[in-house]
UniProtKB/TrEMBL annotation, chain A:
It comes from the Bacteria. NCBIfam families: sss. Keywords: Cell membrane, Membrane, Symport, Transmembrane, Transmembrane helix, Transport. The chain crosses the membrane at residues 20-40, 61-84, 90-111, 132-153, 173-191, 203-222, 258-280, 292-317, 350-380, 401-420, 426-450, 462-482, 502-519. The keyword Iron does not apply. InterPro entries: Na/Glc_symporter_sf (IPR038377), Na/solute_symporter (IPR001734), Sodium:Solute_Symporter (IPR050277). Pfam families: SSF. It is a multi-pass membrane protein. This is Cation acetate symporter. It comes from Kitasatospora cystarginea. Belongs to the sodium:solute symporter (SSF) (TC 2.A.21) family. It is found in: Cell membrane.
TrEMBL record, chain B:
Residues 104-118 have a biased composition (Basic and acidic residues). The keyword Membrane applies. It holds the Pfam family DUF485. Residues 104-126 are annotated as: Disordered. Keywords: Membrane, Transmembrane, Transmembrane helix. This is DUF485 domain-containing protein. InterPro entries: DUF485 (IPR007436). The chain crosses the membrane at residues 33-55, 67-89.
Length: 542, 126
């Protein structure tokens, strides 16, 4: 992440669009706050706070899922990766889409039918409550905090870039403001408010991306091949720009690293807690299925548009200008907007740049609110109500605990983001997916589909997946031993890959299997029968 | 023994339903679709990732204009994802939803008089 901007094109263009960006973003914040207060007045009990009263339709929840999923990392990161590395950026985006089939076929409907508010509801369904809820609660909070950090650190740098302000002070205040707003959305609006914020954001993001896509394609008379040709020419890498290898194919290690990342992406999505809780906001399993179908359509079209935006940025803005503005390419989409509007200094360019920048801020804000809600819900419902208070907490007490947890998690995220602002956001997102794929997905699949799975198996797979993925990252080049490491001057790494998935996902699955076989207590066949009936038919579902 | 959460709805008679012919058929058709299709799309995705990493020459083959095999295979991943989602939607509509509804219905009438069934989810509520 670039920290200080001096004489780049963004900075010079900044003065003309900065005011407009702030106005548009202010309008978004105002509208979403009004929605939040409105939703807060309609939030009475725990089912409203955690699950939005289970009253959303498949389309609404599909939009909200897309809003939760299409982070700034997707919009700015993938467009930038395509603009700088061509085909490999596109290759990266595909795992994010294919992953939704796991959620559609195996997770969404059974989860909706057998759980209540959190992922742990399903994992603990036929197990001993306290050990399983503790494990699932910890892994939920860890995944959410990694993801939250990625978004907030990214937000700090992004504001500096898009508004052309430099210096640590501006970045810090951005992180504090984003953190305060996300806590406000969650505490006041609960799941109802947060869902509407996601819906508004998803519509804005899709509209912004669609507008730019049409403008890009129009420049090339809607001929994809000539867009590709222009991008390859401008990249200076000729046809290699359109082929795999520029980012992930340079050495044997980067190839393995990419395979590891792909596995984490495709298996991690269906284990992300903030995505899983969205399935509780609809009334039936059928509506949960419809919401995933909508999400697949929306997210798929969005990534196809990112492909056009990335190649468009390469062709029209050019890698030199993009790299001068931000080495990782994060400003490729905003710079493209400026170019499409008429170029730097033009009125149209300033307007389009301001619109796209405001959409990017809205994107960050909505995603962090979703993450805060999922982690505070798990804290209150799993750790507080069921582990600490052993199921004796009343509904009001539980919701109060969730609100306090949202404030605490917000504060922790703000502090960590300020002190860890050199963290590599892409590595953090990848780590969140790796933990979800190694700790959460194996446990969910075994719980739902393996009769013999028991408490020991559930606890082993969560902890083994969680610990192995975090430990492998600590001893990887992400933390030490490379120029881009968190601690570039130290070197204690022995694991060569940046992404742990290739090793930690099999460990998670194996640990669940071995733990189950070694345990003394056996699974209760009556509870499994009940879970199966409930997950497939919805009998007894909340 | 842990106390279950408050307001737990009355559990259905899981064991009896689970052993019924209708339920075993429902489970069979769900698993018969979901498991092989999942294995299939994961293998297809991994094949694509491996080709991208280890068969750059093949992936670079031009198909038409500047469009090469790599791009076509990438777009095919999108196409197959959309197609599988659409197939599952049809399959669930035709095969899974009616039999799940029938099991719910027969349980509801079977349990009438014994248990308050007001909390059973309503498909119509969607």
């Amino acid at each position: 992440m670039t920290t200080v901007l001096t004489v780049s094109r963004t900075a010079t263009a900044a003065s003309s669009h900065r005011g407009l960006t702030m106005t548009l973003f202010g309008a978004f914040v105002l509208v979403t706050l009004v929605i939040t207060v409105w939703a807060g007045r309609r939030t009475k009990g725990a089912a409203d706070f955690y699950a939005g009263g289970r009253g959303f339709s498949g389309l609404q929840n599909g939009l909200a899922i897309s809003g939760d999923y299409m982070s700034a990392a997707s919009f700015l990161g993938i467009a930038g990766a395509i603009a700088l590395f061509g085909y490999d950026g596109f290759l990266y985006s595909i795992g994010f889409l294919v992953a939704w089939l796991v959620a559609l076929l195996l997770i969404a409907e059974p989860l909706r039918n057998s759980g209540r508010y959190t992922m742990a509801d399903v994992l603990a369904f036929r197990m001993r409550q306290r050990p399983v809820r503790t494990a699932a609660g910890i892994s939920t909070i860890v995944v959410s905090i990694f993801y939250l950090l990625a978004q907030m650190v990214g937000a700090g740098s992004l504001v500096a870039l898009l508004l052309g302000v430099s210096g640590e002070g501006a970045k810090r205040w951005t992180v504090v403001a984003v953190g305060a707003l996300m806590v406000l959305y969650v505490v006041v609006g609960g799941m109802k408010g947060t869902t509407w914020v996601q819906i508004v954001k998803a519509v804005l993001l899709i509209a912004g991306a669609a507008l730019m896509t049409v403008l890009v394609l129009a420049r090339y008379h809607f001929n994809i091949s000539s867009l590709l040709g222009a991008a390859a020419d401008a990249s200076g890498k000729a046809s290699a720009f359109l082929e795999p290898g520029l980012k992930y194919g340079t050495t044997g290690t980067t190839k393995l690293d990419f395979i590891s990342l792909s596995l984490a992406l495709v298996l991690g999505t269906a284990g992300l807690p903030h995505i899983l809780v969205r399935f509780y906001t609809v009334p039936t399993a059928r509506a949960a299925r419809k919401s995933v179908l909508w999400a697949i359509g929306i997210i798929g079209v969005f990534y196809l548009m990112t492909l056009a935006l990335g190649f468009g940025a390469a062709a029209l803005v050019g890698p030199k200008v993009i790299k001068a503005s931000n080495a990782a390419g994060n400003t490729a989409a905003p710079l493209l907007a400026q170019e499409l509007g008429g170029g730097a200094g033009s009125g149209g360019g300033a307007v389009l740049l301001a619109v796209i920048s405001a959409v990017a801020f809205a994107t960050i804000l909505a995603v962090v609110a979703g993450l805060t809600l999922a982690s505070s819900a798990s804290f209150a419902h799993d750790l507080y109500a069921n582990v600490i208070r052993r199921g004796r907490a009343g509904e009001q007490e539980e919701v109060r605990a969730a609100k306090l947890a949202a404030v605490a998690i917000g504060a922790i995220a703000i502090l960590l983001s300020i002190f860890a602002d050199q963290l590599n956001t892409a590595a953090l997102v990848a780590l969140a997916f790796a933990v979800a794929a190694s700790a959460n997905l194996p446990t969910l699949l075994y719980s739902l589909f393996w009769k013999r799975f028991n408490t020991a198996g559930a606890v082993s797979s969560v902890y083994a997946g969680l610990v192995s993925s975090v430990v492998l990252v600590v001893f990887s080049p992400v933390v030490s031993g490379a120029k881009t490491s968190l601690l570039p001057h130290r070197d204690f790494h022995w694991f060569p890959l940046e992404n742990p998935g290739l090793i930690s996902i099999p460990i998670g699955f194996l640990a669940g299997w071995i733990g189950t076989l070694l345990a003394k207590d056996t699974a209760d066949p009556a509870k499994y029968a009940e879970l199966e009936v409930r997950s497939l038919t919805g009998l007894g579902a909340h | 023994m842990d106390t279950p959460p408050n307001e737990e709805p009355a559990p259905p008679d899981g064991r009896r339903i689970a052993q019924s012919q209708e339920f075993r058929e429902l489970r069979g058709s769900f698993r018969g679709f979901a498991f092989p299709v999942t294995a299939g799309f994961i293998l297809w995705y991994l094949l694509y990732v491996l080709l991208s990493s280890y068969a750059p020459g093949f992936m670079a083959t031009r198909v038409v204009g500047h469009v090469n095999v790599a791009l076509v295979l990438g777009l095919l991943q999108f196409a197959s994802t959309f197609a599988i989602a659409a197939c599952y939607a049809r399959f669930a509509d035709r095969r899974l939803d009616p039999s799940a509804a029938a099991i719910r219905e027969s349980h509801r009438t079977g349990a009438a008089g014994r248990r308050d069934t007001a909390r059973l989810p309503q498909e119509a509520a969607e």
